Amino acid sequence: FQRVFKHAIKRAAHADLVDEALKHLNNDGRPEDLKFDTSLPTLRDRSVAWIVQAYRKLNDPSVIRKCFEMCKLESDSACNLSYASLTSKTAMNALCDLPKTDP
User: Fold this and answer.
1) 53 — pLDDT class (breaks 50, 70, 90)
2) What is the residue range of 42's domain?
3) CB neighbours of residue 50 within 10 Å
4) Of 76, 81, 87, the residue nearest 65 (C-alpha)
5) Domain tally, the chain
6) What pLDDT is recorded for position 69?
7) CB neighbours (10 Å) of residue 54?
8) Averaged pLDDT of the chain
9) Phi, psi angle pair for 80, to nearest 5°
10) Which domain of life is it from (predicted)?
């Protein structure tokens, strides 16, 4: 989920910068005069909006389920952190066999 969330934040930041650039150009601004404000107070204020946009985009049960399904074991790609996998018969058998396989 962390990678997906970071990507959503980056997309929100990019969209914000594109909007600012288009607003500058639409107001008859010259491309050479375009300068983004990268001061700490400005970035601190804008980053809150980027995080909120990312949260709203990812606050969907299907996205969360997909993220858990993508967390797989290297040794067994059928095992993941989804509810279906963790409560499956295979997972229950693995838990029962654990004292024998890893004493």
Assistant:
1) very high
2) 2-59
3) 19
4) 81
5) 1
6) 86
7) 20
8) 89
9) -145, -175
10) Eukaryota
